[in-house]
């Protein structure tokens, strides 16, 4: 009787462990499947777009439809391709998704009490803009890093930049380079001038507070720095 009792107690425990293992394995596998899929398929929407729609439906707030127009990288101005590298990730080609030089600067800044911007690479930002809901937490940062690893493994740098340019948040209900170009300059992304591309890249840290059509002194200064560094950036 004692043996039977032990077996009965062990069976539910084994089932729980099996179910838990399946759930954990599934959660770890989903990002890999997603990354592999988008190596070949252009995304029709992003998770932040879906999240915003759901949030507005639940809260009853006014929903503004997103402007999202996919363009292949060769249909996006070389000026903008160079500008975003100059503004957001100048070591894009030399790192594997994590810029440890920038990470060290952030840590040093924290120790000294200085205010310094984050060390997110273009790969990390792409993971965030395509796959993750808008939030700020350690858990989301860990998931972002997990996606980043597989994006760097399975995607080329050109593909990462292409998806970044098409999915990054460029202001209110404005997703990607084509939507931003049409909204701010009434032109296609392929026709952006050097100056227009530089100021579009310059607003990326704060696209909901900075305006490329009404730039303040800070934004003008940032635009100049981007234009200065653009010739140094590779063309992907």
Fold and architecture overview:
By secondary structure, the protein is an all-alpha fold. The protein has two domains: 1-41; 42-232, Biosynthetic peptidoglycan transglycosylase-like (Penicillin binding protein transpeptidase fold, Orthogonal Bundle). It is 61% helix and 2% strand. A two-stranded parallel sheet has the order 1-2. The chain starts with a helix and ends in a 7-residue tail after the last helix.
The overall pLDDT, averaged over residues, is 91
Computed over alpha carbons, the radius of gyration is 22 Å
Described by the principal axes of the CA atoms, the overall outline is: globular
What is the domain total for the residues?
A: 2
Distance between the termini: 72 Å
* Strand count: 2
CATH topology-level name of the largest domain: Penicillin binding protein transpeptidase fold
What is the N-to-C succession of helices and strands?
HHEHHHHHEHHH
If classified by CATH, what would the architecture of the largest domain be? Orthogonal Bundle
In the CATH scheme, the class of the largest domain would be: Mainly Alpha
Q: Helical content, roughly? A: 55-70%
Structural class: mainly alpha
